[in-house]
Amino acid sequence: MVFPARYESLIEYVGPEVARLVVAPPKETSETFETAAQSIHARGEGLFVPLYAISGTGKTTLANSLRAFFPGSFTPTVSHLREVTFDALRETALEATRSSAANENKIIPINVDHRESDPASSTELAAIKRFLREPTVGRRTLILWPETTEAVAVDMSRNYEAIAGRSPIGLPANVEGPLRETWASIATHTLQLSNDVESLELMGVDPKDYDPAEFRSIGEYLRQISDDFTQQRLKLLRATRKPLRLAVVIVSSSENAGVLMHLTNSSKFGLLDSNALLDATKSSVVGRWWRDHRGLLTQMIVQLDARVFGMPPAVSIPILRRFGPADVQSDLESLGVRDHGTTSISKALRRSDFGKYLNGTVTPTYETRGTPSAVSSPAFQLLGERGFTAGKDKELNKAVLEGIKAFLAEDEIAASDFVAENGLGFVPLIPDNSFTMGDDCVCVEYTWRKGEFLANGKRGDIAAYILQKLQNYARELGYATE
Questions:
Q1: Which of 117, 207, 453, 477 could in theory staple to 449 by disulfide, Cβ–Cβ 3.0 to 4.6 A?
Q2: DSSP 3-state assignment of 53?
Q3: CA 15 to CA 201: how far, in whole Å?
Q4: Which residues, in sequence order, are CB contacts of 447 under 8 Å at separation 6+?
């Protein structure tokens, strides 16, 4: 949910719908621009108009909305962000005409909206004068120069009139924003359009609760509502947000942690090592991205307590035999894999690195296991040959969650909110598995791989996968936007 308080950010969220938020200025301001339009046509030359008003009055909105207020007189406003010279002004005006009809004769408003408190020099004023008398596009151009300091606006206006002659309108033009009685309506429509909702009850802030008389400008009024809206949103988020923990689990034929020992902290069980991850991905796109965000990588690992574990066939196969899809259970049964119930699953998990992470019986390093199982290893190899793509892994992820649930229940570890392949709700993340333990929300991301995937030759692939997951979490949690 958002509440843009300035025209520039409003355009970003609302786009063309911003026209629905535009309210005509008071009569005196409207008459100023009506006179300006008529004078440009009558004189056959353009007009320079410094605009003065305190910050937040609506100068930018007015400058960008002349076509909405006077559709018969003005084309859409264009911004001029270049230097102020004859050639640059002419190029801006010509660019504005390239999408219009050849016989278009409406006035082109050019808004110089990057020079507040930096008035035009005598050289720039001379360039403006010369351009506005140029016989093609200059003669039908209105140059607007917003300014928040009255003395600066007055001085610039006097200097311009000294070289160009008296203006047909009073300079600087004093901009009056929308009438105060319209402010609540503007704020209401801003909330509704920016968030695509009709009911303000969903927003937690109602503009009718704010007295416009207490604010100097509509900008101050909107910023106060926006600030309160933000605080309300943060309050709601903090009330529902839980600390996140992330575990990446690599399910493969590998019986031991293998290469994972080279990607994790040597003294903290399974905790990812940022330097090791980057060293292993020097030539990958995601590795290069994280090298430009090293500080964020460390922050994400620490904040998420991000860890990685392997899951050997001795753990995955009993879970799939008990909770897997019907076809997988049938295949495993045909291979002689028996279902020994949840007690067997809990025993296997309890001995595994991932199980020790879940029940808190951690050791400084990964466990080294013995001889591969004569039953589960061949069974997993068969599943690997059939493949884990095309959505098959999602059903397997659901099965593992059932195994985790049974394991935690048998070990009498309090946990709740078990969800597979679904959003968390309080943040825009969809982990493979998630569940609540204590105050934490544990997110588990699985990758199912055939063969001995934790062998040394896979170090770069594993590191890239982990970094991709961390990048997704950083983006979804709002720590990175690129």
A1: 453
A2: coil
A3: 24
A4: 248, 249, 250, 251, 465
